[in-house]
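Q: What residues go here?
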């Protein structure tokens, strides 16, 4: 099952962002520190047209610190880009964002004009909580569910910066199936738009590979199974998710795994690394070339044969 979720308000947000972008000096993209690659919206480079960009790896308190450091190095090596890790409720970290913005636009103070920054991010990445921290008051609806912000708004914050807030936006088609599952596991996709068991199975296999000790500690498991499906069944038995006859309620067990992963109860977990991004993008490029060649061959067959 491929994970897709692009409701109508996201389509409207895309159009609104494109209309506002000529007035914007700086783009602030909020990413999930646990999945910086998958939470990067591929529409943003197209919409931003090379503007200076600050990438904020939010929810860093839930992510593996060693992997976060590697991601910061990756993003800071990009042109016209700075990156920082933060937890949206850490006032000291949030306060430093304005300095990062000024560093990206060193000539701006001489113009004595406010920096016009647009803050972008996928749903449930903590954007609204971050805006409220920057503003020092309740401006945006915040909650642990996607799609709370529906309309753009402009917010003046300290440091001579005016923020344009926009609704959290995914993209019409998530080509990387693995990214779709990571987004769903993190809570970026509405639960009504996903199959809990399939997402939990993906997450279980990921955790078995990357964080086996954390799984053993959380669920008091001495011998881990080899497959995600078996792990979900074992968690269900451990947590008493049993139906009559001792059959495990797989959906309930899957919910336990996903919610505890999202809440950080497995410890500090990062779903992907910069090397994974490189490897997966290479595979996607090869798939695109193969599809292009297949389409070209089909067109050749349709052409009338010369006698």
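A:
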């Amino acid at each position: 099952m491929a994970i897709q979720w692009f409701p109508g308000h996201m389509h409207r947000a895309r159009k609104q962002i494109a209309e506002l972008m000529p007035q914007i000096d700086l783009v602030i993209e909020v990413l999930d520190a646990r999945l910086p690659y998958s939470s990067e919206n591929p529409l943003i480079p197209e919409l931003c047209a090379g503007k200076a960009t600050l990438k904020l790896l939010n929810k860093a308190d839930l992510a593996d610190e060693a992997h976060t450091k590697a991601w910061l190095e990756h993003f800071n090596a990009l042109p016209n880009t700075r990156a920082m890790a933060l937890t949206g409720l850490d006032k000291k970290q949030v306060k430093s964002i304005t300095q990062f913005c000024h560093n990206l636009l060193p000539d701006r103070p001489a113009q004595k004009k406010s920096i016009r920054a647009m803050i972008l991010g996928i749903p449930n990445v903590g954007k609204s909580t971050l805006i409220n921290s920057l503003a020092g008051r309740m401006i945006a609806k915040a909650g642990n569910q996607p799609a709370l912000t529906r309309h753009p708004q402009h917010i003046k914050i300290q440091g001579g910066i005016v923020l344009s807030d926009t609704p959290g936006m995914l993209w019409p088609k998530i080509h990387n199936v693995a990214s779709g599952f990571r987004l769903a596991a993190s809570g970026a996709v509405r639960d009504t738009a996903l199959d809990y068991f399939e997402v939990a199975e993906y997450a279980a296999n990921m955790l078995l590979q990357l964080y086996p000790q954390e799984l053993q500690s959380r669920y008091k498991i001495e011998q881990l199974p080899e497959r995600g499906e078996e792990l979900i069944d074992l968690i269900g038995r451990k947590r008493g998710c049993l139906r009559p006859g001792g059959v495990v309620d797989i959906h309930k067990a899957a919910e336990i795994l996903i919610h505890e992963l999202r809440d950080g109860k497995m410890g500090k977990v990062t779903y992907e690394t910069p090397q994974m991004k490189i490897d997966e993008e290479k595979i996607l490029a090869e798939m695109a070339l193969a599809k292009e060649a297949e389409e070209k061959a089909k067109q050749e067959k349709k052409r009338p044969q010369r006698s």
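A: Context that may help when evaluating the design: The chain has two domains: 9-165, 177-262. The CA atoms of residues 24 and 116 lie 5 Å apart.
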